[in-house]
Amino acid sequence: MAKIILAEDDNDMRRFLVKALQNAGYDVISFDNGLSAYQRLREEPFELLLTDIVMPEMDGIELARRASELDPDIKIMFITGFAAVALNSDSAAPKNAKVLSKPVHLRELVSEVGKMLAA
């Protein structure tokens, strides 16, 4: 079972995403900010980082950059209402990251997560 770490500061969105991914068979650990997620990434490996971009304490782009430094093989997916920020060529976001725009449909999320983990 693939392990996913989720960083999303919106409580309702976080619960919604966790439930969808767990129902699809994934092991999901979630956090409401990037700093807490980063601290957990330092303790154990995950196959996928799923993160919002705009969050308190540490934004998703910084989290993704640091996660890639810890584990160059970690797959990264952003779920955001600010896709243009992640897609900006000047962004520090890892270039192989996938970006899904909010609102995201659960079927699309589960499908894209499956594709990323299979790649």
Record the strand order, biggest sheet: 2-1-3-4-5
Strand content: 15-25%
The CA-CA distance between the termini, in Å, is: 15 Å
Shape: globular
> How many H/I helical runs?
5
Helix proportion of residues, in percent?
40-55%
Taking all Cα atoms into account, the compactness measure Rg is 13 Å
The largest β sheet comes out as: 5 strands, parallel
Average pLDDT reading: 89
Order of helices and strands: EHEHEHEHEH
Instruction: Outline the low-pLDDT stretches.
Output: none
What would you call the structural class? alpha/beta
> What oligomeric state is this?
single chain
How many strand elements? 5
Secondary structure layout plus pairing:
Blueprint: E1 3-7, H1 11-23, E2 27-31, H2 34-41, E3 48-51, H3 60-70, E4 75-80, H4 83-87, E5 98-101, H5 106-118
Parallel strand pairs: 1-2, 1-3, 3-4, 4-5
Helix pairs in contact: 2-3
Provide an overview of this structure.
- With 119 residues, the protein is α/β, with parallel strands linked by helices.
- It is built from five helices and five strands.
- Helix content is 42%, strand content 20%.
- The protein has a five-stranded parallel beta sheet, with helices on both faces.
- Strand 4, helix 4 and strand 5 form a beta-alpha-beta unit.
- Helix 2 packs parallel to helix 3.
- The radius of gyration is 13 Å and the shape is globular.
